[in-house]
TrEMBL record:
Cofactor note: Binds 1 FMN per subunit.
Reaction it catalyzes: N-[(R)-4-phosphopantothenoyl]-L-cysteine + H(+) = (R)-4'-phosphopantetheine + CO2; (R)-4'-phosphopantothenate + L-cysteine + CTP = N-[(R)-4-phosphopantothenoyl]-L-cysteine + CMP + diphosphate + H(+)
Keyword Metal-binding: yes
Keyword hit for Ligase: yes
Annotated protein name in UniProt: Coenzyme A biosynthesis bifunctional protein CoaBC
Originating species: Parahaliea mediterranea
């Protein structure tokens, strides 16, 4: 097995992968979050480690075992995830943002449990930092890969995110297909970069992760990083 790791497509490279949802606290007992299972990010971390990369997962709260030979840093909020990632990218060749980061968080976190009042209530939300954009526009800058979960015009929206966030590669995911994505064990995606694209047909997340790792290794090498 050691020989396999030494000769893998990512041998000698350091990877950081975000995975899972974030949790944005409202008060000591409540939070905003989403249904991300973390499966795709964990499958990628496993495939990256198998390909020889020194792999770190920055993970929101999920019910998954840490893959073998992967270091795991647990976080809750988007801001915690950003801090953890910024500390890690100083020694990182490839950054993959697979987490379903909450776009907004409650404007204030109440110190005490919020008590109910009248018939209606509203929440004030503020924007969270964009983690992958911050990494892609920082220094040092690793080869940066994002994901795009879309329900329509999947490739157009993904290409727009690739450019807007200054990414090297984006993996577009049609989450309108009810039996795929999020909680599913299978997925199908389109990988897009500045002057090319590749469609990866429906497969288990584990097999898809292996194909994505091979593609990322190839794009990283040809980008001359
Ligand atoms: N992402 C991130 N930090 C955020 C929001 C998103 O790092 N605060 C990353 C995700 O991990 C993913 C990519 O950005 O790699 C795209 O996430 P997505 O939710 O599809 O895009 P957004 O830019 O948030 O746009 P929208 O939700 O409005 O489509
Ligand atoms: Ca979003």
């Amino acid at each position: 097995a050691a020989a396999l790791f030494d000769s893998g497509a990512l041998a000698g490279l350091r990877l950081v992968i975000t995975a899972g949802p974030t949790r944005e606290a409202l008060d000591p007992v409540r939070y905003l979050s989403n249904h991300s299972s973390g499966k795709m990010g964990y499958a990628l971390a496993r495939a990256a480690a198998e390909a020889g990369a020194v792999t770190t997962l920055v993970s929101g709260p999920v019910h998954l075992d840490t893959p073998a030979h992967v270091r795991r840093v647990d976080v809750e909020s988007a801001r915690d995830m950003l801090d953890a990632c910024q500390a890690l990218v100083a020694d990182c060749d490839i950054f993959i943002a697979c987490a379903a980061v909450a776009d907004y968080r409650p404007a204030t976190v109440r110190e005490q449990k919020i008590k109910k009042g009248g018939e209606h209530s509203s929440l004030k939300l503020i924007r969270n930092p964009d983690i992958v954009a911050a990494i892609a526009n920082g220094t040092p800058r690793p080869f940066t890969v994002g994901f795009a979960a879309e329900t329509q015009d999947v490739v157009d929206y993904a290409r727009d995110k690739l450019q807007r966030k200054n990414l090297d590669l984006i993996v577009a995911n049609d989450v309108s297909k009810a039996d795929l994505g999020f909680a599913s064990d299978e997925n199908e995606v389109t990988a897009i970069w500045r002057d090319g694209a590749s469609q990866l047909p429906r497969a288990t997340k584990h097999n898809l992760a292996r194909e994505l790792v091979a593609l990322i290794a190839e794009r990283h090498a040809s980008a001359g990083n």
